């Protein structure tokens, strides 16, 4: 019985996820109602509230699931930095994998990062990325932990904002560059800009 219940839960949440994307392709997030979500998912309002407190929790869960797919699969545990040295070949591979994942989930990221969406969408991305990455940054500054503590907020904001900006442009572009090209651009920016300023050394593994 538990397995059947779990399958029903997963099915309903998938229907709500698809309903959210469908509605956000046509409407601003703030204008979407619970009734619209329920109608689009072909469930009733009571069923919606069995799964989520409100539409913001649905949005948060949808974004978290996709970001976890990126973070947990490619970045955790952090592999490309050790004792203050960034290993560029590993970093390059990870960045390419992440860009490929974004490309494979083009519809989701195009909708969530679209410049016409409400600011809350981008705020969610910024906060969730910071939450996932910041605890790992301490591993990146084995030689200069105080350097990290002094500049971590600037470093994180710069990296997150820049990557989100590049991804927003890239995923909405009609003539989209291949994932490896975008990954290389991001690596050049990070390693020749913020990471260099923070005192990280570059090398090959």
TrEMBL record:
Q: What is this protein called?
A: TetR family transcriptional regulator
For this UniProt entry, the molecular function terms from Gene Ontology, in alphabetical order, are:
DNA binding
- Which lineage ranks, top first, belong to the organism behind this chain? Bacteria, Bacillati, Bacillota, Bacilli, Bacillales
Q: Which residues cross the membrane?
A: 154-171
Q: Which domain of life is it from?
A: Bacteria
- The UniProt record lists the HTH tetR-type domain at 10-70
| Keywords per UniProt | DNA-binding, Membrane, Repressor, Transmembrane, Transmembrane helix
Record feature DNA-binding region, as residue ranges: 33-52
């Amino acid at each position: 019985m538990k397995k059947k219940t779990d399958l029903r839960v997963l099915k309903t949440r998938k229907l709500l996820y698809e309903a959210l994307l469908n509605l956000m392709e046509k409407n601003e997030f703030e204008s979407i109602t619970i009734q619209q979500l329920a109608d689009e998912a072909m469930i009733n309002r009571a069923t919606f509230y069995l799964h989520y407190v409100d539409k913001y929790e649905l949005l948060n869960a949808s974004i978290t699931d996709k970001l976890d797919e990126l973070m947990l699969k490619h970045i955790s545990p952090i592999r490309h930095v050790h004792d203050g040295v960034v290993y560029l070949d590993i970093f390059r591979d990870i960045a390419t994998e992440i860009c490929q994942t974004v490309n494979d989930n083009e519809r989701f990221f195009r909708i969530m990062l679209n410049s016409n969406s409400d600011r809350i969408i981008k705020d969610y991305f910024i906060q969730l990325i910071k939450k996932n990455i910041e605890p790992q940054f301490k591993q990146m500054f084995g030689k200069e932990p105080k350097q990290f503590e002094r500049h971590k907020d600037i470093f994180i904001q710069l990296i997150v904002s820049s990557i989100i900006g590049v991804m927003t442009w890239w995923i909405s572009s009609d003539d989209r560059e291949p994932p490896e090209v975008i990954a290389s651009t991001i690596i050049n920016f990070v390693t020749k800009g913020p990471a260099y300023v923070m005192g990280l050394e570059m090398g090959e593994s």
